[in-house]
Amino acid sequence: MDASETASSFSAKEASETGSTICIHAESSEPAQEGGRAAWLTVVGSVLVYYSSFGIINSFGFFQAYYQQDFLKDTAPSTIAFIGTLQIMLMNVLASVSGALCDEYGITYLYIGSGIGTSGALLALSFSRPGVVWQVFLSQGLLMGFTMAFGVQPALTVAGQHFKRQMALAMGIVAVGSAAGGMLFPIMFRKLLPVIGFAWMLRVAAVKIILCYAIALYISTSKRPGKGRLTSFRKLLDFKGFLDPRYAVLSIGAWFAQLGLWVPYYYIEGYCNIVYPDTHMHGFFLPLINGTSIVGMIIGGFLGDHLGRLNLLYPTTLVSGFLCLTMWLFAPSLSILILFACLYGFCSGIFVALLPSVVSQICPAERMGARMGAFYLVVAVSSLIGTPIAGALIAGKDKQGYQGLISYAGGALVVGALVMMGSRLLHDRNLGRKW
């Protein structure tokens, strides 16, 4: 059995999603039961949690544009971007801890705490004063990012407990929740903002989130609460994987790619507002990217299993970079920008779906979770600084002012793709072989 075949059947302790990892935290002799009504209800519950947490993070482009234009208009775009990237970083850093708590104690208290905390953060944000950036930073960046981390990771873990052969399918379905949230929340926000205002828009979203968490808690089943053995914190992360050149080079490539990956998600709405101020497409570019990323996640996972995951990951990352450097950089018309959003969403969805499984191909099964934790801890740094750096490159409120930002995003993705291809060559110089 080759590495890709071994990695294609994640164990319940070994699956991962971009921005969060499922780590090995507990030893259990209990055999995994495959599927069933309780299992698929748990997957639905995990989708709801992902929709209500990661979906809000994927909606940050709406907040970025609104803050730049109105609520925090005197604040630099790079500073605003730090609010969103802090959420991603916190979920990466806290993934191992929240997954371990789920293995030991189940999901009940974690879902209750994460649901109340996430809704509470939105309520706190609704009372923030315009122009006071530290209030937004504390409520939306720090509090929301921290509490979401204790919902996202356990949602993956508890879904994974029910599957072995169909693990990839189950994880793919859960991941769709984040893109669905990133597609539907901005549409809801755009409809509600002019009618009830920013504060009440957030309160409506808070009620929606608490309802989703409540339904998820009711229909989800944790199979092994309290039966695992919570390891020491040091064992949750294994940095010995960096001694493997393939792992080390892949992490460097992913680090560079993540510098640019989220830039269109954060800034394409603001770009559209400036370049095409009279278009009816305001507020719809972010849902468009997230919607097409769902297709990319599903097709990417299917093709990755048949063609090789890294064989597909680095070329589509390279295409993402070229899309930025051609279609977005020059964008001669609104229709070209719409086409860019669709194609970029599709390719970025493949990146999100395949990166964790590529990492799993390199890691030994017994250390997979801990090494994924170390991998994403390193990558989290680029997730934190990538879009703020891009925001700092905005040179003016016109099309030319965004050229530095777009070139930076495309360049980072191209460099990341080429470095990841180096990891593929280190494994096997025959690029046509499945891996």
Automatic annotation (TrEMBL):
UniProt record similarity statement: Belongs to the major facilitator superfamily. Monocarboxylate porter (TC 2.A.1.13) family.
Keywords per UniProt: Membrane, Transmembrane, Transmembrane helix
Listed name of the protein: MFS general substrate transporter
Stored PANTHER family: ASPYRIDONES EFFLUX PROTEIN APDF-RELATED (PTHR11360:SF281), MONOCARBOXYLATE TRANSPORTER (PTHR11360)
Keyword Heme on entry: no
Broad class of the protein's primary localization: membrane
UniProt topology in membrane: Multi-pass membrane protein
InterPro entries: MFS, MFS_dom, MFS_trans_sf, Proton-linked_MCT
UniProt cross-references to PROSITE patterns, sorted A to Z: MFS
Transmembrane feature ranges: 38-60, 80-102, 109-127, 133-156, 168-189, 195-219, 247-268, 280-303, 310-330, 336-362, 374-394, 406-426
GO MF terms held by the record: transmembrane transporter activity
Cellular component aspect of the GO annotation: membrane
Record-linked Gene3D superfamilies: MFS general substrate transporter like domains (1.20.1250.20)
Keyword Transmembrane helix in annotation: yes
Organism: Melanomma pulvis-pyrius CBS 109.77
Compartmental location: Membrane
Ranges for domain Major facilitator superfamily (MFS) profile: 246-435
